[in-house]
Amino acid sequence: MKLYSYWRSSAAYRVRIALNLKQLSFETIPVHLLKDGGQQHSSAYQALNPAELVPTLVDEQGSLSQSLAIIEYLDETYPEPRLLPQEPFARAKVRALALDIACDLHPLNNLRVLQYLTGELALDEAQKLRWIQHWLTLGFNALEQKLQQTAGQYCYGDEVSLADLCLVPQVYNALRFKLDLAAYPTISRVNHNCLQLAAFALAAPEQQVDAQV
Amino acid sequence: MKLYSYWRSSAAYRVRIALNLKQLSFETIPVHLLKDGGQQHSSAYQALNPAELVPTLVDEQGSLSQSLAIIEYLDETYPEPRLLPQEPFARAKVRALALDIACDLHPLNNLRVLQYLTGELALDEAQKLRWIQHWLTLGFNALEQKLQQTAGQYCYGDEVSLADLCLVPQVYNALRFKLDLAAYPTISRVNHNCLQLAAFALAAPEQQVDAQV
Q1: Range of the structural domain that residue B27 is part of
Q2: Is the pLDDT of residue B213 over 90?
Q3: Chain A: residue nearest B148 by CA?
């Protein structure tokens, strides 16, 4: 399998964790989101991923986009360890936590949005940071409240799930933008527990072949 | 079942279509997103849905948030008619189309974002409309390209799927904001085909008990 990835992309980071948890070997193909005006906009990559976003997974069946769709595909194809509980209501709770991050939090602070804010809208750095912190704070407040109901060692009880695969990259992202995590003890605890696992640690941005540290 | 809904919410609209397709009876509980400073921010609703967003589905097992998690739950619990293909790769393609809309398109033009643009950032109406059209155009360009590969009568072949449940509300939303659909023949065709089905037609915003037309 080939994963078109960028070291700091939250969405690619989620898929890397899933691949590691399932012990699947894959080749990373770096797509530099800032170099050459954004390599994700190249015509070769656009043909693979019309939305010009990372990640894209390519296997013998073809190419897949959207991190959560890719992870569910991996989970259905390589069921061990499973990333969703078996019972439908519990599955829905886990998926909702993942979507809280993937739909309502991450897209608002994504690179292309920040580029629009500082480009088209000519916001200064302070305004950009306020935007980022606004959505992070709203999202983390809601997540903390939900996780207080559902978390054990991980986001949903004591088994790693799809929700953790979204949480850890989002916390990484929040720390980059200096969000103070003191108000989020449950998020912090789960994040810490996940990072003890090699599958998460090895998926970290700094561990990637294209990392610039 | 109870569905906390707002007539014009795209996310609630998706769930209404799913409930109708599966012929499940439900009670609509209107949450007015603009009245009383936004009824989604009331403490009663916040306890049910910490992110203060619609929809929320409540059944005998409890409350669920996030439209896509709710729809997958309904699909697992009431499998007929199924909203995802059976084969994993095809399921992933359908989920990716749904997520293209639910993650990368809809959240950027959601009410709370537009309120931030005109409030905190003091954008005028023309700037707000440019923001909306920018993300709609990017998203629809990518979708049209993908649907040209996958669509038959509906988004993915000739069976209604989760992707259609996201597409139709997104097209409704785009038309509200005057997006010209001439460049999107496949999107337009699929949208038209879906709206011929009673499950879609009856889920339309104007058909809801809380519609203000």
Answers
A1: 2-80+200-207
A2: no
A3: A50
